[in-house]
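Chain A, query sequence.
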Amino acid sequence: MVKLSSLGDVVHSLPAAMDMQSAFPDIHIDWVVEEGFAPLLRICPAVERVIPCRLRAWRKQWWSADTRMQWRAFIDDLQAQPYDAIIDLQGLTKSAFIARLAKLTSHGRRFAMANRTQGSAYESPTRWVSDVAIPCAWRSHAVQRARHVCAQALGYGEPTQPHQTLFASPDTKVLPNTVALVHGTSRQNKSWPLSHWIKLAQYLVDRGHALGIPQSNDEEAQTAASIAAAVPQAMVWPRGDVLSLTGSLAACAGVIGVDSGPSHIAVALGLPHVQIYNFDTAWRTGPLDCGWQQSVYAKPSPTPELVLHAWLNGLQAHAFAKESQT
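Chain A, predicted structure.
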């Protein structure tokens, strides 16, 4: 499998790997991904081997001796064995390039998406280097598109039920009744007003929740500090890598966040989750509603009361599901 980045896109492709393992229990899945996201794939039970690459960094220093050495090591890793199927789930020139460099067995084939889908990037080389180009519905959710491509490539029925794809470590220390507030996002127009975060935080504290606030850069640290200053019961988490963040989220009772990689990790962990949207794009990247995972959309942005209502409904649905299982 080739899905290099970004964090949310990688997480959206995890159910497809789980599908393949479910259809073929003896399958061996290797995954090429940007180095920063490799630790996350190593805790997905369907992925056997992770092949990390540093395309983003290499492009900035392609002339250096260190880059050439790392590139040769990556190619050796990529071509260590031939594959029966190489599936490009990214649909970009860079992923097509990696898919072309990987080796096939004598009967192996390369698979890729045949077309762009609404709201997603797509570049034609992904189709040119494939042996089989798989048509995708124009209006496709990111998770469903990846599952569709893999099911068509390997010839099994496309599942419809969601998968939990990431799991807490056995030694994870649970943070009782703690809610993580994921406020950071790579795009400013996806963010939620600071005043809304503060008001929601106070609502949650009033209902007995403890609060954890992740941050991954200086700007996010400033926002987290502002929330914690207004609501002293909120704790700003120390900065860490994607694996430590996943562990911290896994210990929580649930997550409320904007459309971002950490929010999508919350979905993959099966946690109660509300995802906040300022644009009507939740159909493409938001949680596939299972009762306790849902999206909230409004213009110019959802109110804290609307988000709180969704959160309380989600908790109730999650409690009911747990009771039904027992």
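Residues 3 and 90 are 5 Å apart (CA to CA). The first helix runs from residue 7 to 23.
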